Amino acid sequence: MLEVGIRVVRGPDWKWGPQDDGEGHVGTVVELGRPGSATSPDKTVVVQWDSGAKTNYRVGYQGAYDLRVVDNAPIGVKHPNIICDGCKRQGIAGMRWKCTRCEDYDLCTICYMADVHDVNHVFQRFETANSVGEEMPPRIDGAKIQLRGIFVGAKVMRGPDWDWGNQDGGEGKTGRVIDIRGWDNESGRSVANVTWTGSGFTNVYRLGHKGKVDLKYVQASFGGFYYRDHLPVLGK
Ligand SMILES: [Zn+2]
Ligand SMILES: [Zn+2]
């Protein structure tokens, strides 16, 4: 699974210091490497960090993996017939987590990472609806990392793919994220609803939808936690 729009955090072979603004900060895959390309070779991807920084990373290049998938809902991954037993939402968006100890018990990523259900129970992770389930260690033993970036409450300004004139009130003006949501049935958690401080105008902007990123943060906000070793390594 390697597609533009996937939301990522630093991974096992990371050696790039604070390019991501520190562990737990989120970015979006915006470009895939191509065989023969000098600047962006095969088995690399370009990541647009929520901070606005942009660099390429190894996703199998020379056997190294710099990134993990923190959310694949923005590329449209879903499990249409599965209900999350945490938030009761029908049709899990993104990765699915299934308890191996309880009968027919599933969680979405948000609920799993928020410690819904017994943290001693072992879960299987289904990366997509076609994936084979992979068994995770129990969450009680996991290293828990704070997720940071463009989430509710973040202070943002126009970013790299901005294409919306002066909706923000002009270059350099800031706004607040009031919601992260999906775009129709196409993608989940892929756009941010922003109210611009100067004008009070509110609209949604791409945050992974179709691999585009309209925003960057001036001040990141807290997006919950994740278990580092439970996230899939991108490109593996
Ligand atoms: Zn849920
Ligand atoms: Zn259970």
TrEMBL record:
- Which Pfam families did the record assign? MIB_HERC2, ZZ
> Quick one: which pathway?
Protein modification; protein ubiquitination
Is-annotated flag, keyword tRNA-binding?
Answer: no
MIB/HERC2 domain residues are 1-73, 142-221
Question: Which Gene Ontology terms cover its molecular function?
Answer: ubiquitin-protein transferase activity; zinc ion binding
List the GO cellular component terms.
Answer: cytoplasm
Keyword Glycoprotein part of the UniProt annotation: no
Q: Name one GO biological process term.
A: protein ubiquitination
Q: Which InterPro entries does its entry note?
A: Mib_Herc2, Mib_Herc2_sf, Znf_ZZ, Znf_ZZ_sf
Cellular localization per UniProt: Cytoplasm
PROSITE patterns per the UniProt record, alphabetical: MIB_HERC2, ZF_ZZ_1, ZF_ZZ_2
The residues covered by the ZZ-type domain are 79-131
**Record key words, sorted:** Cytoplasm, Metal-binding, Repeat, Ubl conjugation pathway, Zinc, Zinc-finger
Question: PANTHER family, from UniProt?
Answer: E3 UBIQUITIN-PROTEIN LIGASE MIB2 (PTHR24202), E3 UBIQUITIN-PROTEIN LIGASE MIB2-RELATED (PTHR24202:SF4)
Name of protein = Uncharacterized protein
**Organism of provenance:** Ladona fulva
